[in-house]
Amino acid sequence: MTSSAAETEALLDVRGLTVGFTDVDRSSVTLLRGVDLAVHRGEIVALVGESGCGKTLTTRAVLGLLPTPPLAVRGGEIHFEGIDLLAADGDAWQELRGRAMTLVPQHPLSSLNPVFTVGEQFFDLLSFQGQASLGPVGYWRPRLDRATRARHRAATIEALKSVSLPDPEGLIERYPAELSGGMCQRVLIAMALLSNPRLIIADEPGTALDVTIEAQINRLLLTKVREQGAAMLYITHDLGIARELSDRVFVMYAGSVVETGRTGDVFARPRHPYTRGLLDAVPRLSSAPIKGIRGVLPDPKTLGSGCAFRFRCDYAIAACAARTPPLSQLSGLHASACLRAEEITL
Amino acid sequence: MTMRFVVRRFFELAVVLGGLAILIFVISRVLPGDPIRYALGPNASPQQIEQMRTEMGLDESLPVQFIRLVEGSIAGNFGRSTIPPFGSVGIDIATYLPASLELAFFAMILAIALGVPLGVTAALYRDRWPDQASRVLAFSGVAIPVFWLALMIQLVVAFRLGWLPALGRIGRNVAPPIDVTGFYLIDSLLAADIGLFFHCLTFLVLPALALAASPLAMIMRLVRASMLEEMGKDYVLTARANGMPRVLVVYKYMLRNAFSATLTIVGLLVGYFVGSAFIVETVFSWPGLGRYGVRALQFKDFNAIVAVTLVVGIAYAAANTVVTVLYGWLDPRLRLSERK
C-alpha cells in the first residue's frame, strides 16, 4: 500500500492485525479482520468509519490495552519504531506508553479519576510515568520531598498553561467533577503531551463535546502536535474533521481497512463504494436529502469470507462473496479493497 | 466546607441517639414482666418491692423517668444491677466494653487487611485459580454458622493442637497492663512490655478469627465485584495509556473508587459484630459486653439490659457516622454536592 522506502520509516506499522474472541457457545468471532495501517513520523492520519467498525479496538491493540481475555490477538504484526509490540513485555510497554505513544480519550468527563484532584493526578504522572514497578517507599518519597513537590507543581502549572487553561493554580485543587467536558479534555491533552510522545492516538476526542468546543479542542490538538513534531492517529466518524485535519486517511469497515490514500485524493475520488457512501451520507447545511448507506453493519459472526460490504453495496457481483479482496494499490498512496475499484466509477 | 460536612453528620448522629433513647425507654417500660419481682424473687414482701421501686426511681412519673435515663446515660450512671453482686451497671460497662471493643476492632482490622487484598487478587485473576480459591473461602466463611466455627477453632487450634490459649483474655497468673485505653494490646505497648503484648495477642487471635470469618468473606466478594466494575472504566484506560504503573492504577486509582461499597458493609458490620460477639465471647469466655449482655438477659437484669442496648445502639450509630464521614473523604463528589 505504501512504497518500500516509506515503510522503513513508519513510526507505527500495523499489518494484518486480527483480533477476536471465543463466544460462550465456543464459536470464534473475529472483530478485526486483518487491519493494515501505517503512521509516519510527524504525520497526521485519520482513521474513519462507522461506530462498531473496529476503530477503537485497533487503537487499544496498538496501545497494548486490549481486554485480554476475552479478546485475543489472532494474527498480524504491530511495530512501533521497529519494536515488535505483540512480543513486548510489561517493562517494554511501560517504556513506551505515555512516553513514546499516548492516548487522548473519547470520553473526557469519565477519563480523569473522579476521586483525585487534577494536581494529584499530574503529580502521579510526573513522579511515576513509565515505571515498571512501585513500592510504598517509592510512592511516598516524592510526596514527602518538598523540592520534588515544588518542581512537580511548577511543571503541572506549565502543562496546564500550555493547553490554554485559565487559572492553572486554582485548577490544581479542583476535582474532575468541577470541570466542564472541554476543560477535562484540555487537562487530558496536557497529560498526554507531558513527555513529548512521538505518537498521539486521539480517539474521537471531540465527539462527547459541543460542536464549538470540539473545534477548539481539535485546533489545540493540531497546534500542539505540530509544535512537538509528533505524529497523530486521529480516530473519527466525522469525515469533515478527517478532511480538515489529516494528511492521510484510512477508511475502516467491519474490522478491516477498505480504502486509504492522501486525504485529498480519497475525498475527491473515492475508489471504494463504502467511502462513496460515507461521503454521500455527510449532512450538508444547504442541499437536499442525505443519501446514506442502506442496511446496517453486518454481524461479525455471520460475515463469512468475501467482501464485508457486499450486503450493502450497489456494485456487488458474485465474485465479491468468493474471497476477501485485499487492499491493493491503485496509484501512489491510494489503495482500495474493492475488486471492482478499477472498473466502476464512483 | 469539609468541616461543615462533618459537623452536619454529627448533628444527625445526635438526632439518632435521641430517638434511640426514646425507643429504649419505651421498650423497657412496656416489656412484660416486672423486673423488681424478678430481682427479689417470689418471697419478697410488698415493703421490699416498694422500697426497691423507689430506689430504682420507678415510682416517678414517666417523663421524669425518661429525663433520669438521659441524664444517667450522659453521666454514665445506669443505676445498680438487680442481680448479685448488685454492682453499678456503669462501672460494669466500663469494665467489659473495652474488651469487646478490642476484640471487635481487631476482628475488623483482620477482615479488612485480609479481605481487601484477597478481593483485589481475585478480581485481577478472574476465573483463574486464585479467584476460584477465594470463592470457596468466601462461601465457607458466609455459610458456616459462627457458633460452630468458634467451637471448631477452639477445639482444633487450642485444645487439639495446643497452639494458642482457648479461654479468656489474659493468662490466669498474668497481671494486665496498666489501664490507659482498656485495650490490652495498646496498653501493653504503652507500658513498653512486648512480651505482654504478644501474650495478649495469643488470646485475641482465635476469637477474632471466628468473629472475622464472615465479614472477611463479605468484604472479599464485595471488593472483587467493585474492582471488576472499575476495570472497564475510562479513567483506568487513560491512566494506563499515559504510562502509570499498573500497581498504582490498581491499588490507588481503582481501589479508592471501589472501596465505597465496602465501606457501607463495614458500617453495617458493627451490628453483626455485636450479635456474633454474644456468641464468640461466650465460647471463648471473653470478658466482654457480649457475655455481660447474655447474663443480663438470662436474669432480666433491667438496668444492665437498658445500658447494654444503649451502648450497642450508640456504637452502631457512631460507626455509621464515621462511615459517612469517610465516604466524603473517599469520594469528593459527595462533599461537592453538599456545597450546593
How do the helices and strands line up, and which of them pair or pack?
The complex is a heterodimer of chains A (346) and B (340).
Chain A: H1 4-9, E1 12-22, E2 28-39, E3 44-48, H2 55-63, E4 71-80, E5 83-84, H3 90-96, E6 101-104, H4 108-111, H5 118-128, H6 136-144, H7 146-162, H8 168-172, H9 181-192, E7 199-203, H10 211-228, E8 231-236, H11 239-245, E9 248-253, E10 256-262, H12 263-268, H13 273-280, E11 328-331, E12 334-336
Parallel strand pairs in A: 3-8, 3-9, 6-7, 7-8
Antiparallel strand pairs in A: 1-2, 1-4, 4-5, 9-10, 10-12, 11-12
Helix pairs in contact in A: 5-7, 9-10
Chain B: H1 2-30, H2 35-40, H3 46-55, H4 62-75, H5 89-124, H6 129-143, H7 146-160, H8 184-190, H9 194-231, H10 234-241, H11 246-283, H12 289-298, H13 302-330, H14 332-339
Helix pairs in contact in B: 1-13, 5-6, 5-9, 5-11, 6-9, 7-9, 7-11, 8-9, 9-11, 11-12, 11-13, 12-13, 13-14
Structural description of this entry:
Chain A is an alpha/beta fold and 346 residues long. Chain A contains 13 helices and twelve strands. Chain A folds into two domains: 4-115 and 195-336, P-loop containing nucleotide triphosphate hydrolases (Rossmann fold); 117-174, no CATH class. In chain A, the strands form two sheets. In chain A, strands 6-7-8-3-9-10-12-11 form an eight-stranded mixed sheet, with helices on both faces. A four-stranded antiparallel sheet of chain A has the order 2-1-4-5, covered by helices on one side. In chain A, helix 5 (118-128) crosses helix 7 and helix 9 runs parallel beside helix 10 (211-228). The longest helix of chain A has 18 residues, at 211-228. With 340 residues, chain B is mainly α. Chain B is 77% helix and 0% strand. Chain B has helices spanning 2-30, 35-40, 46-55, 62-75, 89-124, 129-143, 146-160, 184-190, 194-231, 234-241, 246-283, 289-298, 302-330, 332-339. In chain B, helix 6 packs across helix 9 (194-231) and helix 7 packs across helix 9. The chains are: A alpha/beta (346), B mainly alpha (340). The A-B interface holds A 60, 63, 65, 67, 90, 94, 96-99, 102-103, 105-107, 110-117, 124-125, 128-134, 139, 175, 177-178, 188, 191-192, 194-195, 201 and B 232-235, 237-248, 252-253, 256-257, 330-333, 336.
